[in-house]
Amino acid sequence: MRKISPVLLLLYIAGAVLGLWLTAEGLSVRFTGEYLTSGGLWQNAAKAAGLNADQLYWHLVWLGLTWFGVLASVWVKSSLRYKAVVAASILSLFFLGWGTLLAVVILVCAVSPSGRRLLREQETERTIIR
After folding, report:
1. Residues 126 and 79: beta-carbon distance below 8 Å
2. In Å, how far from its chain's centre is CA 1?
3. pLDDT at 14
4. Would you list the DSSP string of 38-69?
5. pLDDT tens-digit readout, 64-121
6. How far are the Cα atoms of 52, 57, 63, 67, 79 from residue 11, in angstroms, in the given order?
7. Which of 45, 62, 95, 122 is deepest in the core (most CB within 10 A)?
């Protein structure tokens, strides 16, 4: 069994919680027309643009499901995993409140020296082999 570092464990947990919540939030908006939470910047952006909640739900579902792809890329040690984690967490920063907090935790895990080393170790291995 693979041994997981504390940094990656925290990244997996925070990413899974964020992905599940964003997906649930988007599906709730789609099927009930109501946000589970205040909706953060997503809801404010929809209102400012004159859109109703149903027109913005798919962004939440897409970002939530993207997190599972990002976590899978970390698990299989994809060469793009560092960039995927950083990009998804930056997009998740706009989900104000607890979503921002989880995204910041993930960003800190990714850019910390041990996180950066763990997420980029395969990139250096491939560069050396070539």
Report:
1. yes
2. 25
3. 96
4. --HHHHHHHHHTT--GGGTHHHHHHHHHHHHH
5. 999 999 999 999 988 899 999 999 999 998 877 788 899 999 999 999 988 888 888 7
6. 33, 25, 16, 11, 17
7. 95
